[in-house]
Amino acid sequence: MVKNPIVIAGAGPVGITLADKLSFHGIPVIVLEKSAAPNKEWRASTFHAGTLELLEETGVTEELIARGLKAEKVQYRDRRNGLYAEFDFSLIKDETKYPYRLQLSQATYVQVVYERIKSRPEVDIRFESEVVDYVQDDNGVTVTIKTQNGFETIRTPYLVGTDGGRSTVRKKLGVSFEGYTHEERWLLVGTPVPFNRYIPDLEMVNYISDPDEFLFILRVPEAWRLLYPVPADVPDEVALDPERIQKTMQKALNTTDTFPIVENTIYKIHQRVAGKFYKGRVVLAGDAAHLNSPMGGLGLNSGVHDATDLSKRLIRIYEGANAEAEFEKYSEVRQKVAVEYVKEISEKNTRVVKEKDTEYRLKLQKDMNELANDPIRAKQWILRSAMIASVREQGIGEPPAGVR
Ligand SMILES: Cc1cc2nc3c(=O)[nH]c(=O)nc-3n(C[C@H](O)[C@H](O)[C@H](O)COP(=O)(O)OP(=O)(O)OC[C@H]3O[C@@H](n4cnc5c(N)ncnc54)[C@H](O)[C@@H]3O)c2cc1C
């Protein structure tokens, strides 16, 4: 059977993962990316154990581990009262080869996978190629792209939208994207200066509660990063003023030192899930299908899980399985994971850091403290947070019942 290439819109972490998995199994892909090169923005910084397990298949995990940092503990702190809960990943050492969060930037991940796949004969990655429209019929999808030379069309049996939160593919599919957007934006600042110089016993991942200005501390190999809220009435240029950034960092770290800044980006934060992850021959994955707060480091990770699930289905479809049944199952399972795992965990982490009501905030902190100090419940929480539980409970790419 001649295999026609599957078109993947967007060479972000999710699109590139899908391209890796499909081409590894001999399925040709055309990846269309509107930018001129792989995105260098650091953004995500955590790779969970459940994701490292899924990335073993094509040999990516080993290379990531060689480049990343192993965060064996995750801390929850109160900005005034200090540490109140610490989760030790050694609790899952009998469950996985990876009892830690691997700290590594999204840009490194994309670069690693891109370098591995770019010369494969099954892979055709086209930069400066923006998907602007598509129409589908019973036999395929005609995709319109905008390039430097004007407009072109490509015919494909299946189009996968991995084109991020503002997905053109999703908008044209006409599915809902219900949820909410946080009122404040979040500012991410990075510096090579180690934060544990200022806060004793600081681990690489810290959720720090405060009713006025919560903090999220994350380390990647290149830098220590601080994520904090920007109130709705503060314009971007004010929030990004270098002096204001220094003052925020000095207050957070209780010092008068000044910090060289290597990263400063403002993000809008959403919790949204698409009503359906496919229609006909067009499928959504990653941020195109679901967005969540970065508290928990789950967006990219769950997108990699989507890509893994979908790759198994597309491989079966190329072998003759029923596409409609496979996509229906994909949509059902991945939507369930987006709502019952990713949304639930990221909302819990977000609530505990930004709750304004003192009594309720202290209650949330007490609950978290009790959870961390109960080894059985703490282990279950880590298995959920590490995206191992969702794979075990919901499966990855399992065939639809009674179809095969
Ligand atoms: C501050 C912050 C920290 C985060 N930390 C974590 C973390 O630690 N762990 C985690 O798992 N997640 C984290 N996330 C979330 C993570 O960054 C996203 O979930 C991830 O980028 C989603 O990947 P994606 O490939 O679906 O989409 P994107 O990364 O948005 O990639 C989409 C790609 O498609 C391209 N594109 C867009 N439109 C088109 C078009 N029409 N045609 C062609 N190409 C197009 C874009 O240029 C881009 O390259 C964080 C997010 C933020 C904001």
Task: Please render the helix and strand layout as text.
Blueprint: E1 6-9, H1 13-24, E2 29-32, E3 46-47, H2 49-54, H3 60-67, E4 69-71, E5 73-78, E6 82-88, E7 101-103, H4 106-117, E8 123-126, E9 130-136, E10 141-147, E11 150-156, E12 159-161, H5 168-173, E13 177-181, E14 185-191, E15 205-209, E16 215-220, E17 223-230, H6 236-239, H7 242-253, E18 263-267, E19 270-274, E20 278-279, E21 282-284, E22 290-291, H8 299-318, H9 323-354, H10 358-373, H11 375-385, H12 389-394
Parallel strand pairs: 1-2, 1-12, 2-8, 5-15, 12-21
Antiparallel strand pairs: 3-7, 4-7, 5-6, 9-10, 10-11, 13-19, 14-17, 14-18, 15-16, 16-17, 19-22, 20-21
Brief overview:
The protein has 404 residues and is of the alpha+beta class. 36% of the residues lie in helices and 26% in strands.
Radius of gyration: 21 Å
SS class:
alpha+beta
Corresponding CATH architecture of the domain at 6-71 and 98-180 and 270-348: 3-Layer(bba) Sandwich
Average pLDDT value? 96
Low-confidence stretches: none
Largest sheet: 7 strands, mixed
Provide the CATH top-level class of the domain at 6-71 and 98-180 and 270-348. Answer: Alpha Beta
Strand segment count? 22
Count of DSSP H/I helices: 12
CATH fold-level topology of the domain at 6-71 and 98-180 and 270-348:
FAD/NAD(P)-binding domain
The set of bound ligands, ions and cofactors reads: flavin-adenine dinucleotide
Strand content: 25-35%
